What does this fold into?
Amino acid sequence: MLIFEKGAEGRFATAQAPKVMSSVADLPPEMLRQTRAGLPEVSELQAVRHFTNLSRKNFSIDTQFYPLGSCTMKYNPRGAHKAASLPGFLGRHPLAPESHSQGYLACVYDLQNILKEVTGMAGVSLTPMAGAQGEFAGVAMIKAYHEAREDFARTEIIVPEAAHGTNPATAVMCGYKVVEIPVKADGDVDVDALKSAVGPQTAGIMMTNPSTCGVFERQVEEISKTVHDAGGLLYYDGANLNAILGKVRPGDMGFDVLHMNLHKTFATPHGGGGPGSGPVAVGERLLPYLPTPIVGMQEEQGETRYHWIDDDALPNSIGRLSAFMGNAGIILRAYIYATLLGRDGLHRVGEFSTLNSNYMASLMAKAGFELAYPERRATHEFIITLNKQAKELNVTAMDFAKRLLDYGYHAPTTYFPLLVPECFLIEPTETESIDELEGFVEAMIAIQAEAETSAEMVKGAPYTQPVKRLDDVKAARELDVSFQRNSA
Amino acid sequence: MPFIPHTDQDIQKMLDVIGVSAIDDLFDEIPKHLRAKSLDKVPEGLSEMDMMRLMSERAQQDAGALCFIGAGAYEHHVPAAVWDVATRGEFMTAYTPYQAEASQGTLQLIYEYQSMMCQLTAMDVSNASLYDGASGLAESVLMAIRANRKSKSRKVLVASGVHPLYEKTVNSIVANQEITLDSVALGSDFRVDQQALQAFEGQDYAALVISQPNFYGSIEDVNALTDWAHAQGMLVIAVVNPTALALLVPPGEWGDTGADIVVGEGQPLGLPLASGGPYFGFICCTNKLVRQMPGRIIGRTVDLDGKEGFTLTLQAREQHIRRSKATSNICTNQGLAVTAATIYMTLLGYEGLSRVASASHANTKALAEKLTSIDGVELLSNGPFFHEFVMSVPGSARDVLEGLAEYSILGGVALSDLVEGADTQAVLVCATEVKTSNDLDVYASALSAVLASKGSV
Amino acid sequence: MSNIPGELKYLSSHEWVRLESDGVTATIGITDHAQDLLGDVVFVELPELEAELAAGDEAGVVESVKAASDIFAPISGVVIAINEDLEESPEVVNSDPYDDGWFFKVKISDAEELNTLLDAEAYTEACAADDH
It folds into this structure.
């Protein structure tokens, strides 16, 4: 039942608003609203109960193992949330003067330095509000760099075909043409194809490493040399940074610019689809183009003062990407997470996420599931293909995914990357215990047995969720995206 | 090991199954010389207790001032239930609702949010939200250029009452696509100058951007502006404050046919100031433009048994399917911020939101009267305003604001800090419903004191 | 195997063209194979009337729940009719791709271009090659 269908005309949570309506008689009458907006009319308890009950219809990290590949669904420490919610942080206005902002600015400054260190880059800006905006900022900086050198011939961005859809979409938003290059059967980029694709028209390449195939790109140095020799720059999509945190740094691999997803690697909550945060880090060449604002620090007579660095101090910046400074609260949570882990803890992230993933991959292979890249080492995630099950039993990856929900596990990422048919991209993360990993594999074995004996049952899953499979076609053809009181 | 559950026995068992002798062996595909050394510049880890001490000290440094700054972020009372419920783990630690059957909570909530935004703005369709108001305006500009098939123009006209930081943001985002923004000058009453507008008559622009109330708090004659733009073949992009929508004519009813795209900052709907985020941008449009809408949209449908359910819809517009031809590169929305806003709107209802809006307006008017009764302080906003106004102070606005800050009063923003070439004596001031009459008096007497001490120098 | 009428011409991107009896009008749609690949069609975006299309131009988009494909003009000409029924009933593209599910008609500017298109046999081969 929708919240609009509960309550009664004239009811509202009276404790939550000023006691009376104030006069607006001084405003021009033709500017005043004449029709009431049809917002819900419920009591406070009705509201709390409605939304609490809605929450119970969600899977979440706090309630289930959630091995979504490429999404890094690790535990989100409550301490980070609690500290970021201290009244001093919540009450600070984004335009408050620096004199009343030293606490917040110190956190931003410290996180900038931590991120520089873990990525091996020369500068960081925390302002992009999500991975996609970080990508945008990164490619916009590549463009600004070429244009500052009056090199206007560079009109193409190269993207491996296995890349996330955001990569080509971002390149287009920056005014570039996208050239896709193939990936070989072992999951590495086809370097010969890359060599014939680069030239004076190449602005850069966008890469994820470990790639979306769940393997480390072994020829990264050759790729770097090829693109750099052609005059292009290398962009690192940090979607999979969790795999290599503390083990290898993008700056050392030759990348010129990258974005990180703090909501993945730095354990900030995904919030049912955001807010995220997608800071960018750059090498020396791109420092002048970083998006603003950034935080700087000065020591004067033994006193530390933090200050904003804005467009006037960074005139070649690609500019501002949000009204203020991105998702400040997420930045705080990421800073707190890094503070709790410290240098040793950050090292362990890459190690244990990789250990968990390889353990699961080994168990799955032993149980007879087909790994997409069996000869390769798994990274923090790995791919299995259920192509045989789809062909022989007519039970698809989607059917396995839905049935997993009945076993109490969120499904892995399905049908991505597109070049592996009927695939699962499985990312367990470092915060899951061995018991959960084994439980998931056992569920997969059980579903395999069901698929062999009662395929139709599996194809009807899930059975234990608030709804069964939904009619997506009806949703798109008979679009209903807003409740209409009169027509209901 | 913080947040890592492995015992020594676990690790040994896992390594045995994998068939390697040490964790480090799992990284043998990474060339040796690339391997990272220790992260020396990262400090040692802290316990939660030590971290809380550090963060409390830092938070305390920024606390305690009485804030009269608005300029795009507004301090409203946030009912306790809003974040208590929104931060339940099931909302806060869920991912984007890809597996619809296991995400009905988030999906239904977003459908309800979309419905509420349509009600507030009097538009047909809302998406699941964008990052913030400023980047939302950039997406609206891109959307208008795609949608206005009659005009081939890659130019958009902006009334200069639009937030200057929004204009900067839009420029950074759209400039790479050869899209340009032109500005209509502001009149002396801090509203669109009608004569300046007439100069654009007959020119080819994809859209006109109108802010209501505008950055200066002024209420624009949106009916006339909307009809003018439509007569010129431009789409109308409305930038609105959601609290004000409880008092002012909604964009869907502007002029003869209403605005085409409505966008704004959702922060006033239950989100704390929090240094500027996370907030969320809302965007609504007419049915006609729905396929040009960027970002996630949730639809109501039925399941195999015919039972009501909710799912992502119109996904073919999005980057994971359309790749380089997507309407935007945006992947997610600001889910948790929207969760809070939906609970906020539910608790207040239309009646409560109207009271918040009217109380904010009344407080702002009262503050304007108190402050401008001080010698040398003048009201520059001589037209109608909502919950912000511009005043002129003797001397430099920056100096006066610094003086007020020493009294722990953040008295507003100096216009010249945000608007190039603005009057250096002008201050933009805001008072919402959270300010008591005593707060207003405290501000007034501090201002008198600051001005008196300056006069004595 | 999907239905591939012998009298039509094709593009390897799965558009079909029928030269009407007047010799100057060509009707364009997507093939049975294409609708099968897409699954349930939920939306079709058509070119504007009187638009001048060159062969190979993007002329529209067809969307299913999980995919979207551009429609290319197989042949140059001016758009003289569009199938407005598809707005309300996109499912016709699935049920009747070669008749009621047509997309648009052009007045062709160069009949010679028809000879550059695939015939049914060549298109059948192209589809078979795709399946690998």
